[in-house]
Amino acid sequence: QVQLVESGGGSVQAGGSLRLSCEAPGYTYDSRCMGWFRQAPGKAREGVAAICAGGRSTYTYYVDSVKGRFTISQDNAKNTVDLQLNSLQPEDTAMYYCAASRSGAVVTAYAFLGGSAIAYWGQGTQVTVSS
Predict the structure, then answer these.
(1) pLDDT tens digits for 66-93?
(2) Mean pLDDT to the nearest integer, 113-128
(3) What share of the chain is helix, strand, coil (3-state, %, to 5)?
(4) Tally of CB atoms within 10 A around 124
């Protein structure tokens, strides 16, 4: 059973930065997507950023609202996926969740952020941005 454990949330003022980390011990599939979702109070969960690997290639995908501000990265040796959040705005306030695709899934990052092929979720970490 794969368990995803997030850390790094907190409270910052607008314009500030945070770095979220997701540890995924034992999650070592060659073909996979991992990413970050967020859910603000009263709103649906939305995909934010994903990093997908297939064979020798790895690529990232971001939703428009975070492009240029958020950066997703992975450390294969540590089996972690991080999300660097810069230029944070109050509308970024949400619970942020790490997610991972099921074993052997062949899915685009876009589809993954739409909810496809997700097999594992973390417990979430809160990000609060004040104006």
Answers:
(1) 999 999 999 888 889 999 999 999 999 9
(2) 95
(3) 10, 50, 40
(4) 17
Could you give the CA distance from residue 129 to residue 108 in angstroms, rounded to a whole number? 30
Query: What does the pLDDT average to over 122-131?
Result: 97
Give, in order, the Cα–Cα distances in Å from 98 to each of 2, 5, 51, 123: 12, 8, 11, 8
Distance separating the N- and C-terminal Cα atoms of the chain = 40
- Secondary structure (DSSP) of 17-66: -EEEEEE-TT---SSEEEEEEEE-TTS--EEEEEEEEETTEEEEEE-GGG
Residue 120 and residue 2 in contact, taking contact as beta carbons nearer than 8 Å: yes
Model confidence at 52, in pLDDT bands (50, 70, 90)?
Answer: very high
pLDDT surpassing 90 at residue 14: yes
Q: Output the CA angle 98-96-7, nearest 5 degrees.
A: 70
For residue 32, what pLDDT is reported? 87
- pLDDT at residue 118, as a whole number: 94
